[in-house]
Amino acid sequence: MSDAYIVETLRTPGGRRKGALSGWHPADMAGEVLNALVERTGIDPAAIDDVIMGCVTKAGEQGFNIGRNAVLASRLPDTVPAVTVDRQCGSSQQALHFAAQAVKSGAQDIVIAAGVESMTRVPMFADMTVLAKAGIGEGPVSPRIRERYGVTEFSQFRGAEMIAQKHGLSRDDLDAYALESHRRAAEATRSGAFEREILPLEIAEGTHRHDEGIRFDATAESIGGVDLLAEGGVLSAANASQICDGASGALIVSERALKAHGLTPIARVVEMCVTAGDPVIMLEEPITATQRALQRSGLTLEEIALYEVNEAFAPIPLAWMAQLDADPARTNAHGGAIALGHPLGASGTRLLSTLVYALRKRGERYGLQTMCEGGGTANVTIVEAL
């Protein structure tokens, strides 16, 4: 079985809701990522076997197979096929897994795994509400599911509150974590740590080069002053991930393709894992998935230099670190989605880009990324920087 190598991985800078990237059609934004992957590697675009695109809200401008539309909006030949996948917030991480599986199996040699989400132009849940507003159907949670789990709907907000309560996390704990996310992201931006992974995009005002959501002037007082999302809870908009527009991607190839096309790998996919659990508390599954991935890989968490744990809500990485006894200094070392934004379908390969280049810059070997996902699933990917 062949190894799966990462030859290039990159992302756009995040754009705030109705912000810098709101003028970009998501197919065009994702197409720019495809173009850049080809340009930076020098690969013959006609040799690409497939494009696997993660996207969560597949309605409006993100409907009709956004993966294929991204190819058509790019400079890739129209002979390159594409598909769109949905593993909720882990969609592009799952795209990475599918690409690596195809390469490892020998079925394909060159695959792009990518993701895109314009949360400005295609608001979250738009795909679930359009028919409901028209009075058609009962929505995605069927009567049988409601009876089985005793809910009328599944809520990530409720799940995050349940995790905070279960693990004894206070509002102060969450706010302190959020402040640190902004601090780390601000420092990474100032130091140029993100420059290699970021693909600047042209906008009306010039060139968008930096993540727009970072609060460089964030303080404990400013974060603590944001209203709670629910009375009696601990979550606020300040300790949850930001709505964000963005795209990201990675070029995954076999050893055969490395030799045939004269490519130089920057990382290797070591282990991939997906698990599923309670769909009500929902967002706690990265703990179990990480344990499974470590067991399968034969590595210990201590042997892994850096961890990217998606900051959908502050309780997620806090509970993950507590349960796995993980080093906070290694966890989201350059900040996370609370500061950088969470462009849903694009976040998986966004985390990959940050992880791979942070490992390479520090001269470290192994990194791990994990993502909580709607419905109670979680992906884990372990990579080796080369």
UniProtKB/TrEMBL annotation:
PROSITE patterns: THIOLASE_2
One GO MF term attached to the UniProt entry: acetyl-CoA C-acetyltransferase activity
Record-annotated Thiolase N-terminal domain positions: 5-255
Domain Thiolase C-terminal: 263-384
InterPro entries in the cross-refs: Thiolase, Thiolase-like, Thiolase_C, Thiolase_CS, Thiolase_N
Class of the enzyme per the UniProt entry, highest EC level: transferase
Keywords: Acyltransferase, Plasmid, Transferase
E.C. numbers: 2.3.1.9
Residues annotated as catalytic: C89, H342, C372
CDD domains: thiolase
Domain of life: Bacteria
Family the UniProt entry places it in: Belongs to the thiolase-like superfamily. Thiolase family.
Full protein name: Acetyl-CoA C-acetyltransferase
Organism: Salipiger abyssi
